[in-house]
Amino acid sequence: MTTQGNVIGPDAAAPPIEIVPEFGSEVSVVMTVLNEERHLAEAVGAVLDQDFVGSIEVILALGPSSDGTDAVAAELARADSRVRTVANPTGRTPAGLNAALAVAQASIIVRVDGHCALPRDYISTAVETLIRTEADNVGGVMAAEGTTTFERAVAVAMTSMLGVGGAPFHVGGAEGEAPTVYLGVFRADALARVGGYDETFDRAQDWEMNHRIRATGGKIWFNPKMQVSYRPRPTMRALSRQYFQYGTWRREVMRRHPETVQARYLAPPLAVAGIVTGAAAGLAAQTGVAPRWFGVGWLAPVGYIAAVSLGGLAISRNAPLPVRARVPAVLAAMHMSWGTGFITSRSQRRPQG
């Protein structure tokens, strides 16, 4: 039998029916990767071992690594068809995330770093939280865990208010709305609404994009059950560089979004300014360049050293002695590097691409 007009006879082929997956049944995991030979297999393995009952795809945005990262990524993709790679020639995090987002298929996007390990229920908890709260992005705690003595000292500092302030994603807290969260599990349409990550940011791109999501009426939700193991920087030099960049880019966020200024962001630069000014005044008095009463300036650096030493010992009281001995220096490196980066920051605007 043939068809006439819009009437379909029993022998005619029915038009294909598009099956739209139920929201929450599929997730795309995006990960930027640069010099992660040491941790990449563990990070990807933790994603593939999730208890999530839906389908998972993993997209690795590969930067120009100088170690064996690309070989590790190629083997992971060969061993499991759920893993694929895209190029990230610049090696910059927001560019890599956008490259991965461009090929992601699911309605939920899970951001993961190449040096963190997800707990087995992370994605299922995140999807449940997204649906229950109707948020655009949900996330949890950046649970810093070190393996060496130095890394463990950094972990102590990074999970304390003395080290990083009171942000819930660092120190924990009650479930609820938040300005930002660690990494993030997003509704794909929320990312599309704000145009993805701003590629002019080297750091703080998560905070800046969460700000844009909230500015367009979206909701960011913190769930302390979503804890992600984070591997701290392994050396004092690497830690100082990291926090210098944090301070630099936090200043840039405040330039572009003045309404985001908070007192706690000003504490490190004020500490740096006070210590430098106090030390200069003390030296001037000591060398006779200035009146002797300028010597009171020494109270600033001496007071800071005393405070960070006592505070560091207090927050590490349950740690082994070698770790406790390093915490004050770690705290000082974090504070001074962040504050110096903030003070010396220049406008970071540049063309995208």
Task: Write the CATH fold name of the largest domain.
Answer: Spore Coat Polysaccharide Biosynthesis Protein SpsA, Chain A
| SSE pattern | EHEHEHEEHEHHHEEHHEHHHH
Helix tally?
13
Count of domains: 2
- Shape descriptor reads elongated
Structural class: alpha/beta
Strand content: 15-25%
Give the fraction of residues assigned to helices.
Answer: 40-55%
Provide an overview of this structure.
This protein is an alpha/beta fold. The chain folds into 2 domains: 26-232, Spore Coat Polysaccharide Biosynthesis Protein SpsA, Chain A; 258-344, no CATH class. It contains 13 helices and 9 strands. The protein has helices at residues 40-48, 69-79, 93-103, 122-133, 149-158, 161-164, 168-171, 188-194, 205-215, 236-256, 263-286, 299-315, 321-344; strands at 26-33, 55-62, 83-87, 108-111, 116-117, 137-144, 176-177, 182-187, 220-230. Strands 1, 2, 3, 4, 5, 6, 7, 8 and 9 form a 9-stranded mixed β-sheet that branches. β1 (26-33), α1 (40-48) and β2 form a beta-alpha-beta unit. α5 (149-158) crosses α13. The longest helix is centred in the C-terminal third of the chain and has 24 residues, at 263-286. It starts with 25 loop residues before the first strand and ends in a 9-residue tail after the last helix.
